[in-house]
Write a structure and sequence with these properties.
globular, 5 strands, alpha+beta
């Protein structure tokens, strides 16, 4: 049963409550918290991967994960609308997340010839070009082939 305030018929955007502190309460030192957002159909999503400091009550950014199921194609600029809140408002020139997307767009342009073999192949080639540009990407073949771009370099905005 859907609560009246959660009605599917509602088209107004509601400000979501800050759930991260409640979610994080039960995480032990060294544990992981994955929090992010997606498009309405789950085709694209982006999540912060945060590790709880072993002793102090603070979070250390470990990765930013981008995921696509390739059903709507691939373009780096499809992802900013689903960035976690800690990044979405920092998509302005001069911010590290903005610079990251500029590099990803450049990598996608360099990899464009691979698109003839399909969107998945183009995504994989763009990930390789992005890694060559100095962005710390986890290049495990299975992850890349299945649409996961794991950025290991913490970008400003991920702290929790």
């Amino acid at each position: 049963m859907i609560a009246p305030s959660m009605s599917c018929a509602s088209t107004k955007k509601r400000k979501s409550p800050p759930h991260t502190p409640q979610l994080a309460q039960g995480v032990v030192g060294g544990g992981l918290l994955v929090e992010g957002t997606s498009d309405p159909f789950g085709r694209l999503w982006v999540a912060n991967v945060l590790r709880r400091h072993p002793v102090q009550a603070r979070w250390l950014p470990e990765a930013l994960v981008f995921s696509t199921n390739f059903r709507t194609g691939f373009a780096p600029m499809d992802f900013p609308p689903v960035l976690p809140k800690s990044y979405i408002h920092r998509m302005i020139p001069g911010e590290p997340i903005y610079a990251f997307f500029e590099k990803w767009q450049q990598a996608a342009r360099l990899a464009l010839p691979e698109r003839i073999w399909g969107v998945r192949r183009w995504f994989c080639a763009a990930a390789l070009h992005l890694a060559e540009s100095g962005v710390e990407i986890d290049l495990r073949p299975w992850w890349i082939r299945h649409g996961y771009l794991v950025v290991r370099m913490p970008l400003a905005g991920a702290s929790g």
